[in-house]
């Protein structure tokens, strides 16, 4: 059977069998996920991670070989439904005003990341979005516990359908997922080596966009970055540097809570100095419209369609979860990325216009990586990257590590540059164009060498 026809049949099977349930929905029934629901991470308390899954719209390979992308939002405490309905999902929220009333609607996103890949959104950690934390005490306080829950959820998702078992898996995310992604990737590889082949998670690569990964290195870059963007003068740069040094000192002394507060003071001071509407994209004249996602998902009929308790009040970002991870914020997971890059593919990307967790802050920790290939990576040329003939950005690559600068994008790259972000993820996964890989390391043997 033609694979594109098979894809069409699979995608529409769920719609046909669900038409009576979704007839009254305030959005197109074809926008519904292929699957959605809960993955229990604690059978005793029933705490669970909420998910939405969208099968590939166009199959270019047999289903059993079609990659699965997992998306994790940052925060800490923000829902992956932001990524789903505002950035890279197959349908995006938009607003219009009629008679001075704002109306929220869904529109097709032709630049979705599930064009040729399966796409799974996980509301992580528990307590975020529609996910359920039985008690506040059960919400993870560190990346080890975050990874523990994610691992259980991913294993349970794979068990939902036998076709998922052998599919290549790529774990992706942005912002504070710069810690979640390495944490779960590290957990998967550590567990894989101790499991029989049929029980392993087929992790092939990880992707971090505008990620907070090594906060001590990254907080040290804000003053210089803003100065060279022309947003502050030399006196203000000095003032910011003093605040940065305090945050770094507190973190190095293990005063994690106060270090987090000190980092917040750096960013708040920078915001006050520049009066930017948002540090997430210096060209935006107003903040991102995250609230549209909450307005849409708090519709009772939408909740019913997604299989969530209609009494749950959806928040884009949870203050409770953010507070739970307060002491975790300034802790580094760079060592996890160092482990991953030795054993799987790693993609780092940043929007050029992000003043909060952007390019300069990522380069600050990458150049300090303990990896035998780091010198070769740093010496590699930064190649011009074009999409449909237009300049999209720049790619620096050596063996397992790729680093992308996305032009004219801020913190939410798939929102700001949907076409280019789609091209980036597809070409990187498929190793096409500037991501063509003729120097891949022997991952299967390296994994056992480093354990």
From TrEMBL:
One of the protein's GO biological processes: proteolysis
Source superkingdom: Eukaryota
Catalytic activity, EC: 3.4.16.-
Molecular function per GO: serine-type carboxypeptidase activity
UniProt xrefs under SUPFAM superfamilies: alpha/beta-Hydrolases
Localization of this protein: Secreted
Keywords of this entry: Carboxypeptidase, Glycoprotein, Hydrolase, Protease, Secreted, Signal
Catalytic EC class: hydrolase
Signal peptide range: 1-23
One GO term describing the cellular component: extracellular region
Similarity annotation: Belongs to the peptidase S10 family.
Protein name: Carboxypeptidase
Lineage per the UniProt record: Eukaryota, Viridiplantae, Streptophyta, Embryophyta, Tracheophyta
